Amino acid sequence: MMDRIFSGVWLCVCIGIAVSIWQMQVPFSYEPVGPKAFPLLLAALMALCSIALIVRPDHQGVEVNPALVGKGAALIGVLLSYALLFSTIGYVVSTALMVVAVSRIFRGSWKTSVVTAVTIAPGTFLLFDSVLEVSLPRGALLN
Amino acid sequence: MDNLSNLFLGFQVAIQPLNLALASFGCFVGTVLGLLPGLGPINGIAIFLPLAFALNLPPESALILLAAVYMGCEYGGRISAILLNVPGDAGAVMTTVDGHPLALQGKAGAALSISAVSSFVGALVSTIGIVLFAPMLSGWALSFGPAEYFALMVFAVATLGGMMGSKPVKALLGCFIGMSLAMVGIDSGTGVYRLTFGSLHLSDGIQFIVIVIGLFAISEILIMLEQTHAGKNAIKLSGKLLFSLKELASTGMTMARSALMGFGIGILPGAGATVASAIAYTTEKRINDKDSTFGSGDVRGVAAPEAANNASACGSFIPMLTLGVPGSGTTAVMLGALTLYNITPGPLLFEAQPAVVWGLIASLFIANLLLLFMNIPLIGLFARLLSIPNAILVPAIAAISFVGVYGIHSSTFDLVLMVVLGIFGYVLRKLAFPTGPIILGFVLAELMERNLRRALAISDGDVSILFASPLSVGLWALAALVIVVPILVRFRARRTAGG
Question: How many CB contacts within 8 angstroms connect chain A with chain B?
């Protein structure tokens, strides 16, 4: 069933890609193929594969453990917030918060998660920013 | 003799202190990443690629580091397969079949050491194969025109569909999805914006590292949430840590045969370590299994997949280096790494960048030697690492992934895009899409489109140029063959099963 739903959605994506490519304004070029042909070909091939999967799905249903849906959503939320806060509040603070949250989601005790956060966040900052010279955002706290 | 002097040059590059240090570091970390269930060679390289780039390592050093991580992962995968009955990476699936029963019988030490030796033999045979055949193939590939390249890549995509076993449609769809992702951004031929949907951030296209880390590292974090092996206990190492001479002697032929087989399969574009180890295991079972000891703990059942697995990993460097067409997901990532350094792999690489190519080949020898010596005495340490709790491991992976992506452009947009691609990758993996083809497609798309457009520009739009030379006709025929033969085989199998 999940195969069919995904393939149906992907069929719509293919149509979207095709329409978007079709509407491109291409300046005159001497090249016979141009920028439209290849993506249109891909959209057609993907549509074929999607239809094949709708007709004959090979994997009936996905096991989704209901106990984990909430945790999965929380994990995605944490990762997205980490991405958004990374450069505004700085690497050390955002990483420490992320580590505590992710560690808790993965069944770490408060002690484990806080100790891991306090070690990883400043430790990797020193390693990357000072030793390896990969510049990381300092954020308001360290400026 | 020319090859030998080039190889000598390669060793001079590879034994420079920096490169040697990177190789040892890569081997160690690679083994650790390989043994952790879920993390495989692609994730390992995905995590290290941006770091190598951000550190401004010279191209040959970056490549040596990544190759050492790759080799290390292939060694590490067997440790969890044997001790935990969970393959550390896809190539180690067949190792569980005999490896875990051996461990249950208290022979974990023998299984681990014999598989380390088989891995070494496989890699050694295959690396010698690279030295012998790669320069030849690259000389031959000089005659490839755009039409031949296009046909070659069609063949690679077709092999993907034909060889990925049970899910050909999903492998192909995954490959096309990867290709479509590569279409985003300004078209270099005409300067029009494709599929950017008005977003300025997308006008440069999706960064390769963002795709790799998103699809592999971030989706892995989400997958790890569901991992069930947490409750399983790894078997403690006890008793003899080394195989007996009798065990070694009984596996000699198996290792040699499997290594050659793995090398051959590794060269084929599209077919990788998983296919190689499965074929080697079934072949050895057919030849040797007279007392039906295979499956209940036969050392040859451990030696075969491990030798083939590592041989195919090394063999897959050949199409990537000589033709510029990667043969596996992992070499696709390495190809992407080279492109970040503005180095275009392909037949000219051997002439234009001998230090890079031969340094890499020499470091494959060195890395495998290091791995053999690391994996026998340090096995106890590696085995203990299996018990790192996810509550510590996962946040560390997340932090390193974010640093890697942020390190390229310091862009928040890239971080968000990475997480979104991670969720997309998670959905695909839950639907049992193989992920290797996606990244292979992403890397191949630009090459394919460029060669197609170039070929048709030469012929002024006449499609027959694609089938003009005997070489391209041969490649098209092979492509058709790898698609049609498995279908026929399956059809016949069903008919015999039905009637």
Answer: 194
